Each structure stands twice: as structure tokens, then as C-alpha cells.
User: Fold this.
Amino acid sequence: MGCTAADVAAAVRAAAEVVAEHRDELVELDRAIGDGDHGENLRRGFNAVVSALDTSTPDTPGAVLKLVAKTLISTVGGAAGPLYGTAFLRAATALGDAAELGPAEVTTAIEAALGGVVARGKAAVGDKTMVDALDPAVRAATATSGSVAEVLAAAAAGAQAGAASTVPLVARKGRASYLGERSADHLDPGARSTALLLASFARSAGAGQ
Amino acid sequence: MSLVGLVVVSHSARLAEGVVEVAAQMAPDVAVLAAGGTADGGIGTDLDAVSAALTSADAGAGVVLLYDLGSARMVAEMAVELLADPDRAALVDAPLVEGAVAAAVAAQGGGDLTGVAAAARTALTTTDGPSAAAELQQAPRTEEVPVLGRFRLTNDIGLHARPAALLARTLAGLDASVTVRFGGRAADATSVLALMSLGARGGDEIEVSAVGPRAQEALGRVAELVERDFDD
Ligand SMILES: Nc1ncnc2c1ncn2[C@@H]1O[C@H](COP(=O)(O)OP(=O)(O)OP(=O)(O)O)[C@@H](O)[C@H]1O
Ligand SMILES: [Mg+2]
Assistant:
């Protein structure tokens, strides 16, 4: 059984709850090497996403992700807005009009999301950004065959390890790059939120099986 | 003919407005618009605000966008991508204040989108000494004898932003090449930034030399401006 638009919308709502639960943690991480707004930016953005889903019911998974993208782009207010916005937008475009998603579509969507983040932010692996979480997530997803839940679980595990790998890195993109060497020994907030989002999507997919 | 517009994208509404204030002072006819801060008045960037500014700043000749950091660039980029014709806007990586001033002056002078973007991009290199001097080396036409004049500035701020812009505008389009010298340095009188970088203040004496068919008239116009205290 694949995921329908309703499943995707439910997964996005669950992710919004996770973002709210981790708001303070993400703020703390961003305070250490940024301007301390990442958790609040994402909370505001995903709150708006939930309101948008309350007032409209997109009828394909792609349309749900497009709504998420547009809402994040216009409400987040920090780098995460255009970055996650472009990620969701590219994922939506890659899915086209498909009514249900299987494992192959999910992998394609995550891949497209990474392409979007890289196109927008021009960061490479090792620059201490969300790319460090998303890139291993794509590689793990591509290497996994199985259900949607299994693909997402692999992606989430990849993202988790990738986020952890940002700790020793010196930032070369984003606000943290202004800190130079002092950005080392901290977890990148965007990599952390990417891992949280993918873990939440994986849980939703697992519960829906 | 319509002029190229300018949009300043910043994380802070006050910063964007401040930059606009400084730049607009030198370009009274150019649409210079601020897009700073989030919709709720916080620090951050707002795509809708940038898109709206982009539309209102375009009088037909296109718009140059300048940004401060991080997401400001990304949001500006998205706003450009959303335009029906993305070629009507140019996103320029430049020091915000210098870039905005240089772009505003170039736009006021009737520069096209490419020219205004280039003015912003090279804002820093045109204000520093060596390259201004290099510019000057090619300026004087060799056999011509320059018309010379010395003028004591009697306005308070001297050859600062607005007066410098006024001087450059007054000489624009006149068939004469005019050089202003002060403190051992020289500036092409059509370059506002070069003029400002001379640092001539009220009470200082500047030397002006002009060559070309209308050199005499150029000197006359300078004399008049100094006489009128640059309309201060
Ligand atoms: N150029 C980039 N490419 C990829 N990811 C980036 C880039 N710049 C920042 N990030 C990610 O965004 C996270 C910060 O997001 P946040 O919402 O706090 O934006 P911000 O840096 O405060 O935004 P702003 O640029 O407006 O100051 C970083 O931890 C990093 O993972
Ligand atoms: Mg931040």
C-alpha cells in the first residue's frame, strides 16, 4: 500500500508537532553558532503549514508538499525558509501528479529535496549545514529496497548520523561561518532539524503500515 | 526614458530603510525601495515584501537588488525567479551601502540594467585610490591644455554625498572631461564615489581642471554650484 495525500498531510502535521517539541533545543543550538532563531523560525513556519492544511485539502502528495513549500518560504523568515521551501518544492515537482507514493517515489522526492537545498544554498558536504544530514539520507534511501517506511527509516538513520558528523566541523556556509574555528564542537541546528523531520516522517510511515 | 530601480533586501527594516535613505539622496528620480525584516516586524527576510518591492521599483528599465546576508540573498533570488521575466532583475553581490550608492547614482545617470549592476559590483574598487588614479591616467586627452579653476567650498559638508552627486549630475552629458583634485588626490568628476573619497570639506579648496570642447562651460557650471553652496 502506498501513501496518499491524506497520509502525507498527516505526516506533515506530526512533523509540525515534533518541531514544536524541539523548538527550544533548536534555538539553543542556533544560539551557540548562529542568531538563535532556528527553532522559532521553524515553529512559526510549521504552525502556518498546519493552518494552511486546515483550510485546504490538496488532493495529491505533490500538492501537499507544494503547499508546505509555499508556506515555509513565506513564513519562516530565516535561511531555513528558502532552503526547506525549495527542498519541498523540488520534491513536489519530482512527484508530479502521482496519487500514491511507493518507495521509489519517496527516494526520488528526498533526492530532489537535496538538489533543491544545494541549488539554493550552494553548500557542499562538510560545510556544516543541513546538507550534511540530507546527503547521507539520500544515499541511505537509495541503497535501501523495501517499503516506504523502510526507505524513510534508512534515510532518517542516515540523517541522524550525518547531523552528528557536523559537530567537529568548521562552518563554511550560513551564519555560523562568521565564527570560523569557533563554530567547531557544536551540532549544526539545520542538520539537527533535518534529522528530526526525517525521523518524524519515518515514524508516520511506520505507524501507517 | 525610465530609470533602473533599486531594491535593498535586509534582515532589518531599519537597516534597509537607512541604506535607501543614503542612496536615494543621490538619486532623486530613481525608485529605491527597502524590503527589510519579517512581516511581523522581526529580524529576518520576507519573500512577499521583496516581491512587492521588486514590482514597484520596476519603472520599465528593470531592477537591481542588493542584499545583506544569508537568507536575504536566497529570498532575493527566489523573488527574481518568480518574476514573469527574470531578466528584468539583477541580483548583485556588493557591499550594501557602497553598492547601493553606486547603483543609485548610475541609475540616476540613465545607466541600463547591466551598467547599474556593474556600478554596484565595482563600488569598492572605484572608490579606492589606485584605481581612481588609473582611471584618471586615461582621462586627459594628451595635447589639450586644460582649463583650470580653484574653488573654496563654502557649504558645510563640502564634497560629500549630495553635493558630489549634484556635481556629477551637473557635468553629466557635457562634452568635457573634468578632474577634481584635493589633498594630493584626483577624482573623475563624473564619479560620485571618487569625488566623495577625496574627502574635501567645507572651507577646503579644490582644484578643477577640464579638457574637451566644452571645458570652459564645465568650469562655469562648477563655479555656479560652488557659488550656490550646492543648494544646501
Ligand atoms: N547556504 C546554506 N546552505 C545550506 N544550509 C544552510 C545554508 N545557510 C544556512 N543553512 C542552514 O540553515 C540553518 C540555520 O537556519 P536559520 O533558520 O536559523 O537561518 P539563519 O541562519 O538564522 O538565517 P539568516 O540567513 O536569515 O540569518 C543552519 O544551521 C544550516 O544548517
Ligand atoms: Mg538562525
Notes: Chain A has nine helices and no strands. The pocket of adenosine-5'-triphosphate (ligand 1) is lined by residues A 30, 34-35, 37-38, 41, 78-80, 83, 117, 121-123, 129-131, 173-175, 188-191; B 11, 44-45, 69-71 (CB under 6 Å).
